[in-house]
Write a structure and sequence with these properties.
With about 525 residues, the protein is α+β, with helices and mostly antiparallel strands. Helices cover about 20% and strands about 30% of the residues. It has 10 helices and 28 strands. Strands 15, 16, 17, 18, 19, 20 and 22 form a 7-stranded mixed β-sheet that branches. It has a 6-stranded antiparallel barrel with strand order 1-3-4-7-6-5. The longest helix has 24 residues. The radius of gyration is 27 Å and the shape is elongated. About 45% of the residues are buried.
């Protein structure tokens, strides 16, 4: 058999060398890129007896050098659960992290692969017997502070960490935050522990990352991949802002670190999307800057205090933007300002669209939630908002977020339910005994657009186009006014039979009447 060789052997070798150089340069450049994170100086960042683990000056052609440097700072976390944990927690306390508001893209993923719900999505601790589980974590200071997930240590009766050198040591929970799924532990005895550092720059989509953890109880497992996306909202909590990575993550990886090619922690692994419970290349990590801010407060106070505005908000959809006469669907629409809250005291009202916080643009309700929550109680904030198409500002002194479940700076589901068009039989709400104000929905055409949008008999329309209504004629008049002004939709504020209010955009058409 004739062997085929390159016509120019030297050129062939040179090309291979050139390609290798380009690949190495790309890897090095990938670790150097990124936008600067907000400067956070944790209280624990003090002079300690051991210097932090240092990464190689230049990332190597493989990940071995990085792994050898940082692996001693990664631990396995073993938990025994207390009696208050439910039976569901026996398979890992992460059931408290169950994802309820799964985005449409992931719903389609489950449908195609034969799973109807979000089960298996949390990167659960691996089950260990009937009342325990194991997860992952990493040491962040020489005196033994350890970061992991809240859902790993939730309902923990005892906690132990196993170091890379094989030692198993007792630890205690210093504090935990369910809203971001971050927890801080402290090893009870010993010092001079090897530890890792948080990254100083945020990773970019396409950057290489390395995950180390304890999947299925197999400690010290290393996987690699890239950052697939940033800013993911997977419905896990009110402040979702996940990194999506394709490094394989499985049960037991919860709480483990994701490193960049400089050996710095850029995320904490917390959830996976999977129809089987195993890795399919969709993993989610909490960004390092979020973890740093939370851990700093947990170490100092044992809890996290968040700013409180006191509003219920919802996204500005395209229909709502058209109903308000806005050029773009941006900002956060105020659905209700709670009485006596900072928002109410500053004069914010239902129908206002918050567009800026301290001069910086707010693109969505979700972003406003995160921005307000990242500030501390007592902070003064300037909010830029639109009211009736006119720009205005308000200075608000933030309160402390209540712990009784009151909705504050939260976002409504934007899946589309509750955005009615016409096709309704109406009556004064007072006449049918539903409310002293507004216009009651008496009947809904089941084949009409209002029914398709979730409007039900018993709902009460409170105002249309920013004007209060008390009779069906008032509703019709405001619709005609919107039509004559050239708007494609009119905005209504509707109270449901359960007493909750929301804004809905009604599309205007020629047969709307």
């Amino acid at each position: 058999m004739t062997e085929t060789r390159p016509q120019n052997t030297i050129a062939g070798r040179t090309s291979r060398r050139a390609l290798a150089s380009v690949a190495a340069a790309a890897l090095i450049a990938g670790g150097a890129l990124g936008s600067t994170l907000p400067s956070v100086t944790p209280a624990f960042a003090q002079a300690l007896p051991k210097t932090p683990i240092e990464a190689p000056e230049h990332p190597p052609g493989s990940f071995a050098g990085i792994v050898n440097k940082v692996k001693p700072g990664v631990v396995s976390v073993k938990v025994k659960l207390d009696d208050s944990a439910s039976s569901d927690d026996d398979d890992g306390p992460s059931q408290g992290r169950n994802l309820q508001n799964v985005p449409p893209q992931l719903r389609e993923f489950f449908r195609r692969f034969g799973q109807n719900g979000p089960g298996g999505m949390p990167a659960q601790p691996q089950r260990q017997g009937s009342r325990g589980a194991v997860g992952s974590g990493f040491i962040i200071s020489a005196d033994g502070y350890v970061v992991t997930n809240n859902h790993v240590v939730d309902h923990a009766k005892t906690v132990q960490v196993t170091l890379d050198d094989g030692r198993t040591l007792d630890a205690k929970v210093i504090g935990k935050d369910a809203k971001t799924d971050v927890a801080l532990l402290k090893i009870n005895e010993g010092s001079n522990f090897p530890y890792v550092q948080f990254g100083k720059t945020a990773p970019q989509v396409g950057d290489w990352v390395v995950a180390i953890g304890n999947p299925f109880g197999l400690g010290g497992t290393v996987t690699a991949g890239i950052v697939s996306a940033r800013g993911r909202d997977i419905g896990a909590g009110p402040y979702d802002d996940f990194l999506q990575i394709d490094a394989p993550i499985n049960k037991g990886n919860s709480g483990g670190p994701t490193f960049n090619v400089n050996g710095e922690v850029v995320g904490v692994n917390t959830a996976i999307a999977s129809p089987s419970g195993g890795s399919v290349g969709l993993a989610f990590a909490i960004p390092a800057e979020t973890v740093q801010a939370v851990v700093d407060q947990l170490r100092t106070d044992g809890k996290v205090a968040r700013g409180y505005l006191g509003v219920q908000i919802q996204p500005v959809t395209q229909d709502i933007a058209e109903g308000l006469g806005l050029d773009k669907a941006k900002g956060a629409l105020v659905d209700h300002a709670e009485s006596g809250t900072p928002a109410a005291k500053a004069g914010l009202k239902a129908g206002d669209v918050i567009e800026k916080v301290n001069g910086d643009t707010v693109d969505s309700a979700r972003e406003l939630s995160r921005r307000i929550a990242s500030m501390k109680p007592g902070a003064k904030v300037e909010l830029g908002y639109l009211r009736g198409g006119k720009a205005d500002t308000a200075t608000v002194t933030l309160g402390a977020m209540p712990t009784d479940g009151t909705k504050v700076a939260s976002r409504e589901d934007d899946s589309g339910n509750g955005q009615p068009r016409l096709g309704l039989n109406l009556a004064p709400a007072a006449d049918v005994g539903l409310s002293e104000q507004g216009v009651a929905v008496v009947q809904v055409d089941p084949d009409g657009p209002a029914a398709a949008k979730g409007i039900e008999a018993g709902d009460v329309i409170l105002d249309v186009g920013g004007q209060s209504v008390s009779r069906p004629a008032d509703v019709a008049a405001q619709i005609r006014a919107a039509e004559s002004s050239g708007r494609k939709a009119v905005l209504m504020r509707v109270k449901s039979g359960k007493g909750q209010t929301r804004f809905v955009a009604v599309s205007l058409s020629k047969n709307a009447g």
